[in-house]
Amino acid sequence: MSEPVVAPPANLRVLVPADKIKARIEELGKQISADYQGPILMIGILKGAFIFMSDLARVIEKPTRVDFMGIASYGNAKSTSGEVKLTKDLDVSIEGMDVLVVEDIVDSGVTLTYLVHLLSQRRPRSIRIAAFLDKPERRMRPIKVNYCGFEIPDEFVVGYGLDYAEDYRNLKDIRVLES
Ligand code: IMP
Ligand code: MG
Prior knowledge:
Blueprint: E1 12-16, H1 18-35, E2 40-46, H2 50-57, E3 64-75, E4 80-88, E5 98-106, H3 110-120, E6 126-134, E7 147-151, E8 157-158, E9 174-177
Parallel strand pairs: 2-3, 2-5, 5-6, 6-7
Antiparallel strand pairs: 1-9, 3-4, 8-9
Helix pairs in contact: 1-2
The structure holds inosinic acid and magnesium ion.
């Protein structure tokens, strides 16, 4: 078998350990469960949100449905160019639904601004945002995050679904990629 292409070994400093992640997700679940009557339509943004989405869904104690959207933002591996494209649309209608957009990280805010604009045209009853991480220092577009896992400094992080050039998504902790 030929060797797979993998990232060279990098220096990955733990920023948010797995046990803190677990505790915080449980808090978010309680908060969300208290805020909604249900049904909630969780919309996970691929691919980065896949782990957060599955952990969060399991601690929400209200009727919940899930769907996914794919978004590509052009740019290099570490920052957005400001251009966003839809690569996978929803399978279901969101009309009249309480939508909870589930995103891995809010950085410039470009992706979520685009998404909220797109989704609001489809007449949902409400749209709220759950973002696992937030880098408020990097914000270029104002966007309100209703449920935030952790605010982090302006550093490039990987793990718990987040990647660098498609690597490291499966790490249990959030780590800073120091290369
Ligand atoms: P925004 O449109 O600039 O807010 O970018 C959001 C997207 O950029 C996220 O959904 C991630 O895919 C990616 N991103 C931003 N910061 C990081 C990071 O530190 N690590 C991994 N991906 C990131
Ligand atoms: Mg993403």
